[in-house]
Each structure stands twice: as C-alpha cells, then as structure tokens.
Write a structure and sequence with these properties.
Length: about 400
C-alpha cells in the first residue's frame, strides 16, 4: 500500500509536469525509451540512414546506455532515464515528439495524455514469450486495485505494438488487453541481424580474435531467464559440467540483465568457461553458439532463426509455473528436449545420438518469425517516417 502511495505521488507530479510541457508545439522528432538496446539500436541506425534531418532522442537506462552511446551524434541525443537532473528535459522531449517508441512497461504512460497527432509504439524486447506477463501474470491477481488501474492505463496508451507473428499478437491481446487493430506486423528489428551474413561473419571473426582457444571447439551457451526470488542460487556446478563435457567444449554463461551476479570460476577451467557481461547483446553471442541451453527465456524465438539445436533446463518447472506462469504446455511447446537435473543436461549435451528434431525447430521458427524476414527495421521506419513527416 505504501508503495502505491509513493508511485501515485510521483505520477501526480509527472502528470503536472507533462501537462505544462505539453503546451509546447510538436517537432519532427522521435523519442525512444530504451531498457534493452537491441531493437532500438537497429531502429536508430535505420532512421539515421533514411532521414539525416530527423531529430532522435534516446532515453536509456544504465544497462543500455553504453551500447546506445555508440550512436550518439549531432542528430542523436542521449539522456539517462533515471538521472534526476534531466527530469524536465526528458518530459520536454516526451511531450514534443511526434513518435514515442518504448520497449518495456513505463508507469509514467499512465498519466501522459498525448496530443492526437502523436503515436506511441511498443516494440517490446522479445520476439516471443514463454513466461506470462502483463494482465496474465500470476501475481496480477494479488495486485492492488490502484496498480491494476495503472496497468490498464499504460497498456491503453500503446497506439501500435510491433509483432513478428500472429501468435505474439494473440499474447499481447491477452497480456495488454488491446484490440487486434493495435498491431504493426513489421517483424522484430533485433532479428535483422540473423539475416545479415556479413555482420554475422564479422561477429564470428571478432569472437575468435578475442578467444583464439575457442577455435575448433563446440560452443554451448547457457542463458537462463531471471527468477523473481532474490535468494535464487545458480543451479549448475560449472566445474563438474566442464569436467563431464571435456576440453572440446567451450561453455558460455550469459545471465539475464536483471541478474547481477559475478560467477567465480576455478582457474583450472578458465579455458572452458566464459561469463558474458549480463548487459551485452546476447544475439551477438548466439551467432557463435552451436547449442543453446536455456529455460523460460525468450531467446529461443530468435535463436531458432539460426536453425541450431536447443536444450531446455527446467529444473524448477513446477515452482516457476506456480509463481510466474507460462503461456503454453511447456514440454510440448519448446523446440528441444526438456531436462530437469544437471546429470540429464550433461547426458543431453554429450550423447552421441543427440537427436535434434530439426523439423520442430523449423516449424517453431516459421510460426514465431512469420513477419521477421530481415527487413523489420526498414519496415518499421517506413511507418515512423510516414507519421512524422
């Protein structure tokens, strides 16, 4: 209840500030609120290329700021999302832009009544979903009435939502309570990478320059999603894992950006284990990955574009379903074998007759990436330019 009161006071002040700034005229400007840089990075690159005169403002959280800073120029301005000094500057740009692009849930949208010419576009931060979110998340029923009203107001502020498939459109319909007319079927910008052979080769070359000992090894990426419980412990004994897999396998570990945990690997296995910074772009590492190990993450929806095998390590499946919820029958839905213990995971990785149902991966990919065909950024920027100019 106290948290709701604090949020209500903040939103009241935000509303007053926005109303004041909203008196100013609109500009030919696009403002992106960025918490995960992948989609916004590709969109900004495309917009800079297509319209050098367009003013672009990137409002970034701490984890996305370094990546987005690569795009800073006279045309592109960067602002820190949570820096108090920039509070009125952020609201000014929010109130005077013709297009607002967001990639997550932003509570301030509950109190921002945009001018009728403005479009707010939700690009989200994933191509698909296994875990429940929004109005369908298990914890929604325990939320206060104030919180639920705020959720609805935020979701109804989305004029358009970008999707890569009809399946994701159905999920957003349920999660956000929005009509079918809300969707832009342009595909997901962050998937454009997987259709760019030149860029993929550059990433492979960079990887082997940085890790020359990886040449000739099978690369296994472990990339779990986050858990809501703060006391959650890593469910793998990595020293044992490297011993079982042997020196011909290199294990990459990429934790979710929400999970700030530094894993201390023994020095004797340092040539077999690499922890990737949690804030790095996981898609760039997928390009060099031979086998993905994950759980309830959305990464498989993009990794399947590379047509490579996956194993799903769901050691806490029943607990996760009870606490968070998932959209489908998990074991039937995912495009790869499901294992529940480290021993089963090790056996799945090393089994000489490891049978990847490639047809299931291909079918999964076709279903969830119907509109993601390598031109998603271009198609979304077509919409943006049309609405701004």
């Amino acid at each position: 209840m106290i948290a709701d009161i604090i949020k209500s006071i903040y939103l009241f002040l935000f509303r007053i500030s926005f109303m004041w700034m909203n008196r100013k005229p609109l500009q030919n400007k696009v403002v992106l609120f960025v918490t995960f840089p992948q989609n916004s990075y590709y969109l900004t690159e495309e917009l800079k290329k297509r319209d050098p005169s367009m003013q672009i403002v990137l409002v970034c959280n701490e984890s996305s700021y370094p990546k987005m800073a690569e795009l800073q120029s006279e045309q592109v301005q960067l602002l820190e999302l949570h820096r108090l000094k920039l509070y009125f500057t952020r609201i000014y740009h929010l109130a005077t832009a013709k297009i607002i692009i967001i990639d997550n849930y932003f509570p301030f949208l509950a109190v921002t009544n945009f001018k009728k010419e403005v479009r707010c576009v939700q690009i989200w931060h994933a191509a698909g979903a296994i875990k429940s979110f929004g109005l369908e998340a298990n914890n929604t029923t325990t939320r206060t009435a104030i919180s639920k009203r705020r959720f609805h107001r935020v979701y109804h502020r989305f004029d358009k939502i970008v999707v890569g498939s009809e399946e994701m459109a159905d999920i957003f319909t349920r999660a956000f309570g929005v009509p079918s007319s809300s969707f832009l079927r342009t595909g997901i910008p962050r998937t454009d990478l997987f259709f760019d052979e030149h860029k993929k080769q550059e990433l492979r070359d960079k990887f082997y320059r940085n890790y020359p000992h990886a040449k000739g090894k099978r690369v296994v990426l472990y990339a779990p999603t986050f858990r809501d419980t703060a006391s959650h412990h890593m469910p793998l004994d990595f020293e044992r894992l490297t011993r079982v897999l042997g020196p011909e396998v290199l294990v990459l570990v990429k934790l979710h950006p929400v999970t700030k945990q530094n894993l201390a690997f023994p020095s004797e296995v340092s040539d077999q284990l690499i922890q990737i910074d949690a804030d790095e772009d996981v898609n760039e590492w997928l390009v060099v990955t031979d086998l993905l190990v994950t759980d309830y993450s959305s990464i498989p929806f993009e990794f399947c574009l590379l047509k490579k095998p996956m194993v799903f390590y769901a050691y806490d499946l029943e607990e996760y379903i009870a606490e968070r919820g998932i959209w489908e029958n998990y074991e039937e839905f995912v495009p790869g074998p499901v294992v529940f213990t480290q021993e089963q995971l090790e056996e799945a990785i090393v089994a000489p007759d490891f049978d990847v149902d490639n047809q299931k991966v291909l079918a999964f990919c076709d279903t969830w990436n119907k509109y993601s065909q390598g031109k998603s950024s271009e198609q979304l920027i077509d919409y943006v330019i049309k609405k701004v100019t």
